[in-house]
Amino acid sequence: MKPVEVYFLNQKEPYQSIMLYVRSVILKTLPEVEERFSYKIPFYNCHKKPMIYLNVLKGTNYVDVAFVQGILLEKQFPILKNDNNRKQVRSVQLKTLEELDHDNFVALLHEACNVLGKSKKAWFI
Predict the structure, then answer these.
(1) What is the distance between the alpha carbons of residues 4 and 29, in angstroms, rounded to a whole number?
(2) Are 45 and 51 in contact (CB under 8 A)?
């Protein structure tokens, strides 16, 4: 079993279901994306650069779907939050699956991949 799969299976509910659903949407929407396991969490690379990672931050009760270049997307997609005072990363915070607007999330994925494709580096700050 891949380390990413082990990570998902070791998550408690509802985090496991949320992460597995988000993973399936990412892989279905962007078949070119590369799934990898870095820093002990799942990352999704587009154009060979990190685009998204999934995590449950300590002391929180939500899945953090973090977009590496989220700062460039937050005006167009107000669902992206910066609750942790991060310089570049913005995230969608999901406590339940029902909170995810599927169509808006798919549009966000496409735009994030497009922005990353035009960018020289993933981490620019």
Answers:
(1) 19
(2) yes
For the entire predicted model, the pTM comes to: 0.92
Structure confidence at residue 17 as a pLDDT band (50, 70, 90): very high
Residue 4: name the closest of 21, 23, 17, 26 by CA.
23
> Within a 10 A sphere around the Cβ of 29, how many other Cβ atoms?
16
Write out the two tokens for 24: 């399936």
Sheet with 41-46, strands from edge to edge, namely: 34-38, 41-46, 49-55, 63-67, 90-94
Taking CA atoms, 101 is separated from 48, 64, 77, 124, in Å, by 27, 15, 11, 28
> Distances in Å between the alpha carbon of 108 and those of 3, 65, 90, 114?
26, 12, 12, 10
Q: pLDDT tens digits for 20-74?
A: 999 999 999 999 999 999 999 999 999 999 999 999 988 899 999 999 999 999 9
